[in-house]
Amino acid sequence: MLSRRTVLAGTAATAALTTLPAGQTHAQAQAQTQPQPATPAYRWRNAVIGGTGFITGTLFHPTVQGLAYTRTDIGGAYRWDDRTARWTPLLDHLGWDDWNLLGVEALAIDPAHPDRLYAAVGTYAQPWASNGAVLRSEDRGATWARTDLPVKLGANENGRGTGERLLVDPRDSDTLWLGTRHDGLLRSTDRGATWAPAEAFPGVPSATGQGVTLLVAAGRTLYAGWGDSDGTAANLYRTTDGTTWEEVPGQPSGTAARVPIRAAHDRSARHLYLTYADAPGPNGQSDGSVHRLSTLDGTWTDVTPVKPGGTAADGSADTFGYGGVAVDARRPGTVVVSTNNRWAAVDTLYRSTDAGRTWTSLKDSAVLDVSETPYLKWGGEQPKFGWWIQALALDPHDSRNLVYGTGATLYGTRDLKHWAPRIRGLEEASVVQLLSPPAGKAHLLSGSRDIGVMYHDTLTASPSRGMATNPVTGSATGLAQAARKPAYVVRTGWGDHGNGAHSFDGGRTWEPFAAQPALAPSAPGPIAVNADGTVLLWVFVHWDGTRHPAYRSADRGATWTEVASFPKGATPLADPADPALFYAYDTDTGTLLASTDGGRSFTPRATQLPSGDSQFKVAVAPGRSGDLWLSAKWNGLYRSTDGGAAFTRVDSCWASYTLGFGRAADGTGYPALYQVGSTEAITAVYRSDDEAASWVRINDDRHQWGWTGETITGDPRVYGRVYLATNGRGVQYGEPV
User: Fold this and answer.
1) Stretch 705-712: mean pLDDT
2) pLDDT, tens digit, for every residue of 340-387?
3) Where are the domains of the chain?
4) Which site in 179, 572, 585, 603 is 20 to 30 Å from 254, CA atoms measured?
């Protein structure tokens, strides 16, 4: 899943490491000395969509039946509760300053100590991202201690579906190994509290950013896959003593075996199975293979189920790599592997019961039931078996309990034929748009990256209509409602069959605009609709950030005219009371512009406001003409009551990242304000019932969800209810208790 947002080498891994108390972030430690506003009791839950993101790894515990863990690229880690058939999120305590740690590069469990769990966290390895960390738990992820690393990890970069890169040494539970992308192999001898380089490890990192792709134990021998090989040099190493490492003799070479993706050890048969591809994935793979290594005599056997490169049913090239691999702990010689990036014929699982001599495709007999998460039909009649399948796990206590992850969900079966999403409690959407209508059945419409717009007819089940169709779009870029005619809603997003659509029933059903500007396919951006639903303003921004002119339609999308005076790339905002009024904030110059002629032309009003950041946001109070609020990030919060002619800084907070409105408290005449911002040392979620004169924090240290600065809105019909967009933990909604 895609989302928002100096590599140290060699001896850098010996730098000082910081350990914090369990469950505590640096910002929280600092804030303990600061006075904090009272926190009213709030209950936080997910507005259910179900899955929605890339599942990058799943582990069953080898000695505890019913215990499993899964990791995601940007949405944290989860623990499975077999009694309730639900996933419990484990990293929601990570706060604003630690947003980069919500991506999980690898998980490790200790077979000898079932309560111990380890997570290597760090979403990006880019220069602008913070370093990674290792989290360690003695209570299955309920609480954590943390060690900051002097190196970067990349849970949302290429190769995020390989692994696991973290391993508890089977010879000594105090010893852990961590494979990094740019800094070789690290070793800890105190259960992850401190780390140092494994000096004898022979891999030399390159610019590809793969490094160690997997760590696996076969008996007392440890194997490490190396992703920086060119296909001719060694890419698999082993150690028998934990000190010296050597190339594994006879290992496969060539394009189809360039990158080791995953490995699984059949302990009874003494076989190690490895999947390979010509690229780390999940995208970009066109070749791959599966090989079996006898750990008794070192013999290699090519057991690839189907060689990539044939012709698919539609005549296109059937290219793909191999991804996940799992062995049956109860049945020697039984192994399952997955294809990956097989777009022409759709990815599948192959199962063998004779150590890879013959294979059966599980997709061919699969019956998929996605009634719990209808969006998985993607606007069609039948769901796909899957894509981006690199996470694959087989229950060591139940040979028919098999799960595999995709780019959108986690499927499971208990009979190898009937499959259904196994994602209750697991929410990984990267949400960018929220709208809470003042009337109608749905209290919430949401827009996310990858899965478009959802109509939430209930908050406790995945939207029954699935993702918005007619047209189907991928990532949402705009969502707006006519304030005085709320049945009229418009949306924009990335799509192959059109990018803009409108609804006349509050977002329940849609139809595409009759026409769209030529820029729409390559640069769909945000959209606004005026108060009575007669004028649309659509802004166009290319994926690389290139900004284009805005376009106006006065016939609901039948024709469009360029608005030359609109600041390129700005987000349009309609006044909720006056149909002729629109606003735009030019972040380059710090200027608020307004249109009094229905969006035909814009002129500057207030100037010399904060500038230089494209993420500044303007909101307008519902039902009130010209009552504007500017969230200027670390520059604070500003308000205008004269349509943007002048702004006054609000002294009650020093940082504001996004702000929204909800139903007013009883006895007050102004909507409740909700914001993600800072009134003291902590960036948190706040509510104000007195027009921002004072704020109360309404989330707590257990509910922070990393980066939450995209959008927030209250419910106009339910006082105290607030909806919060997160970058990887879906839509969170809170209510007073």
Assistant:
1) 97
2) 999 988 999 999 999 999 999 999 999 999 999 999 998 888 899 999
3) 10-421
4) 179
Q: What is the dihedral of CA 674, 473, 599, 568, to 10 degrees?
A: 90
pTM comes to: 0.93
Instruction: Tell me which H or E stretch contains 512.
Output: strand 511-512
Question: Among all chains, which residue has been given the structure tokens 């100096």?
Answer: 6
> How far does Cα 488 stand from its chain's mean position?
30
CB 169 within 8 A of CB 222: yes
Residue 22 has pLDDT above 60, yes or no: no
How would residue 683 be classed by pLDDT, with cut points 50, 70 and 90?
A: very high
Q: What is the mean pLDDT of residues 589-606?
A: 98
Torsion from C-alpha of 495, 496, 502, 505, nearest 10 degrees: -90
**CATH domain 10-421 topology:** Methylamine Dehydrogenase; Chain H (2.130.10)
CA dihedral 622, 627, 632, 634 (to 10 degrees): -90
Contact partners, residue 69, CB within 8 Å, separation at least 6:
58, 59, 61, 77, 78, 79, 80, 107, 109, 117, 141
Provide the annotated active-site residues.
73, 450
For 224-232, the CB contacts below 8 A with 24+ separation are: 224/177, 224/179, 224/185, 225/162, 225/259, 225/260, 225/261, 225/263, 225/274, 226/260, 227/159, 227/162, 227/259, 227/260, 227/280, 228/203, 228/204, 229/258, 229/259, 230/258, 231/255, 231/257, 231/258, 231/278
- Alpha-carbon distance 448 to 725, whole Å? 9
